[in-house]
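Homework help board

Subject: predicted structure for assignment chain

Our instructor gave us this sequence and asked us to write out the predicted structure in token form, then describe one feature. I got the tokens but I'm not sure how to describe them. Can anyone check?
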Amino acid sequence: MPDSRSDRMAEDSPATDAECGAERGESRRTAARWRLMLAGAGRIAGIGLILAGTLGAAFGFGLYLTLRAAVSRPELVVPDVVDLEADEARALLERSGLRVAVSGSRHDPNVPAGKVLEQFPLAGTRTKRARPVRLVLSLGPARAVVPDLAGMSARGAQLALRAARLSVRHTMTVPSARVPIGRVISQDPPPGTEAYPGDRVALLVSAGPPERAFVMPDLEGRAWSAVRRALERAGFRRIRARRDGSTAAPGEQDTIADQWPRPGHRVRPGDRVSIVTRPPMVLEMEIPR
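My token output:
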């Protein structure tokens, strides 16, 4: 039995040695592959570090040059361009080495249109060359248009003017047979006129139909018949006639001895007129309305 076991071990030894050698060869090949891979990765990492360092150096140098140029650039004093025409302001700023940027515009009651209203930076500020100076230009005073007020009530016209940023200068009243009382007849300035906010408009307002009035004529010495016909054509209505306390009518040949109101006096519809004839008779009449 011992001999048989020894023979079997002797037979198995060559196979085991071959397998061990194969395993050692595979291990050496695997190690070699890892060494190659690590060496390649190291070279790639080295190249990356070199490139990163180069780029970083280049960026840092460029940044250094930029900062150095910015710091070493001489400063300028911003000139005063407020109240200058826009073209004059632009020329002055560009001659000073600055750029111009118009940032807006607005109305101003005191600065004419087209002139510089504001600037930033302010005049006298120190700044770098080629920096922008922002300008605000004036549009001049704001404008308003006079509305049409004809036919409006005085109060309505006042509100319409207020909405247009205007106001009433004064109001005059005159009689008018065409325009109802209290309504605007005309205005000054006329509708559509360009004005400035705060300007005033004069109004002419109707006082209603003109009042009828007459100048009392001189009737003394005239024949009653002629006076009567004239009064009837004018629409006079006789109120009362008296002669010696009676109500008899005056004769055709009677003449006018006295009158009231006196000649030249102004009388209106509804006023009373008294006439005394010769022979004595008093006639009282009312002026027609």
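Reply (TA_rk): Your tokens look well-formed. For the description, you could write something like this. The radius of gyration is 59 Å. That's the kind of observation they're looking for.
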